[in-house]
Amino acid sequence: MNRMNVRILVHRIPVETPVRTSFGTMYDRPSIAIRIEDGDGHVGWGEVWCNYPSVGAEHRARLLESAVLPLAGESGLLDEPEALWEALSAKLRILAIQAGEPGPLAQCIAGLECALQDLAARRAGKPLHEHLSQGSGRSVAVYASGINPHGAAQTAARAVAAGYAGCKVKVGFDGALDRLNLHEVRDVIGERIALMADANQAWSADEAIAFASDVRETGLLWLEEPIAHDQPDADWARIARETGVVLAAGENFSSWNDFETLPEKRSLGFLQPDIGKWGGLGQGLRAARKAEATGRQFCPHWLGGGIGLLASLHLKAAAGAKSGYVEVDFNKNPMRSHVSQSVFDTLSDGRVTLSESAGLGDLDPVIGDFAGAIVMQKEIAIG
């Protein structure tokens, strides 16, 4: 195992139009990038989920520096990303309980795992998807996400014109506006393009049932997180049973037991793990295999920066399933778009084609273009 140098970069990218959800608004686009370089000059990149709360990015960067990376350096497992994820999750379990921070710590471990997977792929000279699953293809279906409640139809029209396979509209705000948006978006995009709705846990079970019944004729492919993740499994199942709508969830799953049991208990048709929130790429691929074995579509969730988006695309390619999509935030985010531009230049008929470069590709130059947006930088040597 080589000694490794780790750089933590926190960026904040100003945006003109805030990104709204039912539980909060992003007024800028934060990201935490982890850059790992080994003694031979190979580099791997990962990204930690940090959208909420608004001060969350800097806090997670400090957790990485103070709690996660020192233990990673002592582990002897830097060359084994999945084993390291298991070891760190176990080692930090009590701290997570005591501090009341299981989420932020899990997110830091997940982002580190992704960076080490990218590093391993770069060392092997293979694209990340090929490193994860030999023989995997490079073509991935994508849909446009994060469509805000105001101007939804116009945004959806731009997404379809750009070549996306589907559009996901944010709901959970005003009932009348939500219903109007879905009808107008369906009218604009036509019947061929997939339409999804994301309530971000906004409703009660009764409210979700009423809403899904009212918009049944829009032909939703799925309704995402209609109620809170911590609500009874029976409520989720009742929504699916009484409305016939197909439910989607997974971004807030935080254990393998969740992935093992909740899809069946909650009548989920689409599984949406977020590799920057929990599990990284190793557990994400495991979830993909589970979804395929149980007849569910695997649709990685991502609403962050460009590194995590590229990694999510490679995960979907490694999973190999012909059905399902990767989420692509359609809101403006200059850094995310710049980092992933070479892939999205290939967007056609709802699909992108991944590069044959090793790992995620050489990201140093494109991330370096945003040095002026760095609000925090940490350096630590481990191993």
TrEMBL record:
Q: Where is the Mandelate racemase/muconate lactonizing enzyme C-terminal domain?
A: 149-246
Q: Record's InterPro entries? A: DgoD-like, Enolase-like_C_sf, Enolase-like_N, Enolase_C-like, Mandel_Rmase/mucon_lact_enz_CS, Mandelate_racemase_C, Mandelate_racemase_N_dom
The record, for Gene3D superfamilies, names: Enolase-like C-terminal domain (3.20.20.120), Enolase-like, N-terminal domain (3.30.390.10)
Molecular-function annotations in GO: lyase activity; magnesium ion binding
**Source organism's superkingdom?**
Bacteria
Return the SUPFAM superfamilies for the record: Enolase C-terminal domain-like (SSF51604), Enolase N-terminal domain-like (SSF54826)
- Coiled coil (UniProt feature): none
Protein name, UniProt field: Mandelate racemase/muconate lactonizing enzyme
Q: Native species of this protein?
A: Nitratireductor indicus C115
